[in-house]
Design a protein that fits this description.
mainly beta; 2 helices; disordered N terminus
């Protein structure tokens, strides 16, 4: 729908085109200070806790080009919490430098934006999906304000003893890879 048609739709109370897209995971791994030189890119679980954190990158190439931030009405990231070993909370932070699933280690980890954009999301039940709002981040990614280097998930600062594992895209037992749901409005 062109901008002129959208304006006409808004002015005359006509429906505005809304569509949904799914961003698939193109990279997920975890990094661990216990094994600082080991790459876990092929691991079936993303371990979080005890200093270990997960890295997830979502492919947004299926989205139409030229989107404005206002076109992204809502975006969520869903992960599958396979096992909760110690209940607590998770923090989600923006990754600010490139990394590769097949090579990143704790010693070569990417940089993270100073403070998490989502803090202390409760995680206390195994075998459940956890969904967080990443609308602001996706708006920045699609408009080029920030490059899409993904997110880091850590034990929450407010709950540092949290220990969980999430399914990775390589999981064959439960096969619940993370994904992003994006609602676009024209």
């Amino acid at each position: 729908m062109t901008k002129g048609l959208v304006l006409a739709a808004v002015l005359f109370g006509l429906p505005v085109a809304v569509s949904a897209a799914t961003g698939i995971v193109v990279g997920d791994t975890y990094i661990s200070p216990i094994n600082p030189t080991i790459n876990f890119g092929n691991a079936t679980a993303l371990n979080i806790g005890g200093g270990a954190s997960a890295l997830i990158q979502v492919d947004l190439s299926s989205l139409p080009t030229g989107l404005l931030a206002s076109n992204i009405r809502r975006a969520t990231l869903t992960v599958f919490v396979n096992k909760v070993f110690i209940a607590g909370g998770l923090d989600f932070s923006q990754v600010t430098t490139p990394w590769s699933e097949g090579t990143v280690t704790f010693n070569t980890q990417p940089t993270i934006r100073g403070t998490p954009f989502i803090n202390n999301v409760a995680v206390n039940t195994s075998a459940t999906f956890l969904t967080v709002d990443i609308t602001d981040l996706v708006q920045q990614w699609v408009t080029g304000v920030s490059p899409n280097f993904g997110v880091e998930i850590t034990a929450a600062v407010a709950a540092p003893g949290t220990v969980v594992n999430l399914d990775s895209k390589e999981s064959t037992s439960t096969s619940h890879s993370a994904f992003a749901d994006i609602t676009i409005q024209f």
